[in-house]
Amino acid sequence: MRLRRPSTLVLSALLPATLALAACGSSDDNAQLKGFDAVSVSGAAGEAPKLDWKGQMASGKQQEKVIHEGDGAAVAKGDRVIVNFVVGDGWTKKTVIDSYGPDAGGFVTEVGAKAQPQQVTDLLTLPITDEIKAGMKLGTRLAVTVDSKDVIGQYLGDASVSSYMSQHDIGNEDGLVIVADLVSVVPAAPDGKPTNVSPAWAPKVVEKKGAPTALDFSGVAKPDPKGKLEVATLLQGTGAPVEAGDVIAANYLGQLYDAKKPFDESYSRGTPLSAVISEDFGTVVKGWSKALEGVKVGSRVLIKIPPKLGYGDQAQGKDIPANSTLYFVVDVLAAG
Fold it and tell me: What is the pTM of this model?
C-alpha cells in the first residue's frame, strides 16, 4: 500500500471501529506495564526473536536497547543494510509481523540517512532505522518500544494505513515492540563469475564502465505474448539462494523488445531497489518473484517475462503498452 499524506492530521472516521476500540478497556488478568517492563526478548540472532510478555504494554515514552551485539563487520555511514524484524502488539501480546518466515519481507535502510516512508510497513520500521548507527556490527539485535499513535503520526487519517493496522489487529493506542537484526551490507556490484550463457531469446547487455545501460535486441526474434518465463544466469554468484519471503537488494534495467531505450533502471541512480520476493505478497511483478527465487546472491540474470506474469492487459503509462513482454537484467546484490 502506497502512502499518501492526508489533508487532515487527526484521527478521522476513516478508522474502522475495530481499530479505534482495540486498545480500549482494561483486564484484571493483565498488568499494565510500560516499555521493556512489559516484554523480554530471547532467541539467537538470525532466528525469529521470541517475545515473552509479562503484561500488557501501556502507552509510554519510546525506549531503545541493544539486545546483543553482533560479531560481524561494522557498518559505516552510507552503507545500505538488510534488516529482518518482528513487530509485537502489547495489547494482544501477539507477534503481528514476522519477516523471518516466508510470509513477510524485511527491509533495506541506509545508515545515517533520514528515512522517508514509501509504504505502510515503513511506518512500523522507522523507529528501528533511526537507531541503526555507524559502527554497529552485523548480527546485532536491537529493539524499540513505541506507541502505535506515534508510529502512525501524521498518517492517522490515511485510509490505507487504517486498513493495514486493522488487518494486523493493531489499535491506535497500543504499545508496540519492534525487534530487528542487522543481516548484511549491500555491495555495490555483483561478485559472480561469467557463465558465457547466451540463449537465442536473450538480448545482449550493453555496458558502460561495467554497468548496464541498455539491451541490444539484434538477432533476437520478436517475443510471443503467450510465451513462457525465461531466465539466463550471466554471472553466477556464490551467495545463498534467494528464498520466498526474502527481501532483496538489486540493481536492474528493464526494456521492451526493440525499444530505443530502457523504460526504467537503477544503475545510474546509485540506489539499488529493495523488493520482497513472493508470488503471493511480493512487491514486484510475479515474473520477478518466479525468476529470482533460487538465484544465488552475487548473480546477474537476464529475465524475459510474458504479459501474464508482468502487467497483463494493463498499460503502464506511455512506456509500457498493454500485453508487453518485459526484459530485465538484474544484479542480485543481497538477500535476507
Answer: 0.81
Distance (Å, whole) CA 332 – CA 89: 33
Non-local (6+) Cβ contacts of 205 within 8 A are: 212, 215, 216, 234, 302, 329
Rounded distance between C-alpha atoms, residue 215 and residue 253, angstroms = 8
- Give residue-wise pLDDT tens across range 234-286: 999 999 999 999 999 999 999 999 899 999 999 999 889 999 999 888 889 99
Please give the domain boundaries of the chain with CATH numbers for all domains: 17-185 (3.10.50.40), 193-335 (3.10.50.40)
Residue 217 carries which side chain, given as an amino acid letter?
F
For 100-140, how does the pLDDT look when each residue is reduced to its tens digit (9 = 90+)?
Answer: 877 778 999 999 998 888 888 889 999 999 999 999 999 99
Are the beta carbons of 141 and 45 closer than 8 angstroms? yes
Residues 230/199, Cβ–Cβ less than 8 Å: yes
152 grid coordinates: 502512525
Distance CA 287, CA 229 (A): 7
The distance from CA 93 to its chain's CA centroid, rounded to whole angstroms, is 24
